[in-house]
């Protein structure tokens, strides 16, 4: 039996996860994520997709973030007709992410077309897919709960374990067997979460595997402690409120937004910050928050008790306001008093956050608070790197608002947390760890770190290269 691994996305980069596992004449795609970065490069990479979509037998989706599920409708549009296997919560979250992407692309096409017409330029760009493609894709999902063994192909069984990254996120274990009794077990971390995060459970240990494909997003960094981060968050809010300014937070609509709501609720209840209005301006975040409420199988004990035993809603309190319509979103920008505005996209590349940045970035009373990973060549990374001028919607803006960062809210394990997870695993049969989903510095640091811990072989996956297993 010939088994090879080839990464066609998230190899020496963080976004666009697409890993192809070939088993003789069968192909399984683990994740089908969209790349995020410079507009031209992003469009080219996303349109490239993967080779021969109609020849893929099945897709395993580890979780519902855009950089892992965002190109599934394009895959279906180009001929993929197999099952998309995920947990129930991942299916629900992925569906709203894909629909949101289709709507943003349609809106972008309309906006950019008008801009080109004003300049007398030709405009030929078309969206990757539309809402009908998303609806068709939704019909191909097949859900499997955690810790349930399931046959996806003859001789290939899979099992999900909780990755502790976002609601429904899954570690994936594949057991591949031959008629002669030989077998091979491969593990995919997906995006690995962290212990003691609110709402969801801690990452489960991986079963013993011979090969592990491991993410490396924070392979060279350590996170702040959450208690320290809450002190810093309160200080940022209090300082900005005293100045009469607003706190603008670009946040992923799934997981990060709900976590921030949870923390703001705590800070207001404990009177650590004043009772100021908190606006969540993202239709996808509003939908995602409602999905959180219907998946108690993913909760940690504290959240389960709050929802199911005491009937309290951690995502609902008086200061919290949701803006679903465009009109409601525009009204937020007319507010003069201090407020917190949480809006997507988390890397500041699309969506309503761009309007809030354009309206607030040149006011020194305001604070832009960055709370997640920012991929190279995104607006979020440029803000993180301290650029004094940035372009938004084609116009140049001076960065006069204060830029702050808090890394403790990241949903990705740092390198010590990654090792703590690996240390709990039975590694007696482990032959090699393949590193994916990281930038060069993170990959090389994590490689050296894991080798120093006694992992026998750690290899950085190169894009498009096939590895024999």
Structure notes:
With 469 residues, the protein is an alpha/beta fold. The chain has 14 helices and 22 strands. The chain has a 7-stranded mixed sheet. A 7-stranded mixed sheet has the order 7-8-9-10-11-20-21, with helices on one face. It is globular, with a radius of gyration of 22 Å. The N and C termini lie close together (10 Å). 45% of the residues are buried. The mean pLDDT is 93.
Task: Provide keyphrases for this structure.
469 residues; alpha/beta; 2 domains; seven-stranded mixed sheet; 33% helix
Present the secondary structure layout:
Elements: E1 3-9, E2 18-23, E3 26-30, H1 39-48, E4 58-60, H2 66-69, H3 72-77, E5 83-86, H4 88-119, H5 131-138, E6 141-143, E7 150-153, E8 156-162, E9 170-177, E10 183-188, E11 211-215, H6 226-242, E12 247-250, H7 256-269, E13 278-281, H8 283-292, H9 301-309, E14 320-322, H10 326-332, E15 340-343, H11 353-360, E16 367-370, H12 379-384, E17 389-392, E18 395-398, E19 402-405, H13 415-423, E20 432-436, H14 440-452, E21 458-460, E22 466-468
Parallel strand pairs: 3-4, 4-5, 5-6, 10-11, 11-20, 12-15, 12-16, 13-14, 13-15, 16-19, 20-21
Antiparallel strand pairs: 1-2, 1-22, 2-3, 7-8, 8-9, 9-10, 17-18
Helix pairs in contact: 4-5, 4-8
